[in-house]
Amino acid sequence: MVLYIERWLTAPMQEEDGQLVERAKGTPQGGVVSPLLANLFLHYSFDLWMHRNFPQLRFERYADDVIVHCRTEKQAQEVRAAIARRMQECRLELHPEKTKIVYCKDDDRRERYAQEKFDFLGYTFRPRSSKSRKGKHFINFSPAISAKASKAIRRTIRDWKLHLRSDTSLVDLSRMFNPIIRGWFQYYGRFYRSGLYPLRWYLNRVLARWATRKYKKLKHRFRRAEQWLLRVAQRTPQLFAHWQLGARRGSAMGAV
User: Fold this and answer.
1) CB-neighbour burial class of residue 29 (10 A; exposed 0-12, middle 13-18, buried 19+)
2) Distance CA 205, CA 210 (A)
3) What pLDDT, on a 0 to 100 scale, did the predictor assign at position 30?
4) Sign (positive or negative) of CA dihedral 101, 131, 129, 189
5) 214 and 228 in contact (C-beta within 8 Å)?
6) 225 CB neighbour count, 10 Å cutoff
7) Which residues have C-beta within 8 Å of that of residue 136, sequence separation ≥ 6?
8) CA 151, CA 159: separation in Å to the nearest integer?
């Protein structure tokens, strides 16, 4: 096993044009084996070390992204310094820009701090207005889809070029793309579902544009295409996952 890991670490990286690039250390960014090696190495160099040295602190780690929960700023600074020393012992280093102390501001923590939000696994954690079961509004430190993740999803949707698929029916579009859309909305809809409303609006605009090229009666009539799409969504909300986003409040889906 050690031999295979050494070969992974020393193997050259191939560029898109086929050129081989020699590497002196680490694994290539985006390499398929990089998360596996990170999990293997950090399990021993970080996870077990944290359990031994800071058993009272909770933390989450995904590959090489880590969140450590501290109670005070002083404790956070001490833990950060200790982790930095530990990484140096293991011939690693903390990312100078991504490694930061964040103040989790909410109704119970109302002070101001330079950093009051962070991104993790496609979510942005920051203070947000929430509503309790009794209808009371309060500030809660909670996650919602990040701007970076939303931008990446929009880029993927643009790459689909739906407006050029006028030879395809709406049902066929659902078969091709709804599994992907469902995955996005199931993952990012776990918390703060309203954060997905702009993405839902964008998807419907794309579908309405498709309709203006698909049907002669809707050509150059974008607003009428939006109204047609709304009627379809109300009749068959199961066609697209984002049409069901508002179902918990009794809406058909709030299409456009």
Assistant:
1) exposed
2) 9
3) 62
4) positive
5) no
6) 25
7) none
8) 12
User: What is the distance between the alpha carbons of residues 119 and 133, in angstroms, rounded to a whole number?
Assistant: 27
What's 136's DSSP letter? -
Residue type, position 143, single letter: P
| Residue keyed to tokens 């694994």 | 27
Task: Please determine, for residue 248, whether its predicted confidence score (pLDDT) is greater than 60.
Answer: no
First to last CA, the chain: 55
Query: What one-character-per-residue DSSP string does 14-44 give?
Result: EPTTS-EE--SSS--TT-TTHHHHHHHHHII
- Count CB neighbours of 177 within 10 A: 19
Asked if residue 148 lies in contact with residue 126, where contact means CB atoms within 8 angstroms, the answer is no
- In which residue are the tokens 């579009």 written? 173
Please name the residues in contact with 31: beta carbons below 8 A apart, sequence gap of 6 or more. Answer: 13
Question: Which pLDDT score, from 0 to 100, does residue 15 have?
Answer: 74
Q: Which helix (H) or strand (E) holds 187?
A: helix 170-188
3-class SS of residue 125: strand
Query: For 12, which DSSP code?
Result: P
Question: What's the chain's length in residues?
Answer: 256
pTM above 0.90? no
